[in-house]
């Protein structure tokens, strides 16, 4: 079963970027996250959205 939410470390691993780079994507509003308690989690669907956004900018 595929999880709906990923930790920051898991999301960074899936995108093959550093934690620092992932937080930069979050700060620049290029990657959507949710906050549950003190934890910041990344919806799996947000990774696809982020990649589409970055592809459009690069084109």
Topology (SSEs and partners):
Blueprint: E1 5-6, H1 8-15, H2 19-27, E2 34-36, E3 39-43, H3 44-58
Domain Helix-turn-helix: 5-52
Pfam families: HTH_17
Protein name: Helix-turn-helix domain-containing protein
Structure characterization notes:
It comes from Actinomadura fulvescens. Residues 5-52 form the Helix-turn-helix domain. This is Helix-turn-helix domain-containing protein. Pfam families: HTH_17. By secondary structure, the protein is α+β, with helices and mostly antiparallel strands. The protein has a single domain, classed as Arc Repressor Mutant, subunit A (Orthogonal Bundle). Helix content is 54%, strand content 17%. It contains 3 helices and 3 strands, in the order βααββα. It has helices at residues 8-15, 19-27, 44-58, and strands at residues 5-6, 34-36, 39-43. A 3-stranded antiparallel β-sheet has the order 1-3-2. Helix 1 packs across helix 2. The protein is globular.
Features:
3-stranded antiparallel sheet, 59 residues, Helix-turn-helix domain-containing protein, globular, DNA-bd_dom_put_sf, alpha+beta, 3 strands, Arc Repressor Mutant, subunit A, 3 helices
Summarize the structure.
With about 60 residues, the chain is of the alpha+beta class. The chain has helices spanning about 10-15, 20-25, 45-59; strands at about 5, 35, 40-45.
Distance between the termini: 34 Å
Largest sheet: 3 strands, antiparallel
Name the CATH architecture. Answer: Orthogonal Bundle
Strand content: 15-25%
Q: What is the count of β-strands?
A: 3
Average of per-residue pLDDT values: 94
Q: Which fold name fills CATH's third level, the topology?
A: Arc Repressor Mutant, subunit A
Order of strands, main sheet, comes to 1-3-2
The value of Rg in angstroms is 11 Å
Q: What is the H/E order?
A: EHHEEH
- In helices, the fraction of residues equals 40-55%
Unreliable stretches, pLDDT < 50, 5 or more residues?
A: none
* CATH class descriptor: Mainly Alpha
Note the overall shape. Answer: globular
Number of helices: 3
Structural class: alpha+beta
Number of domains: 1
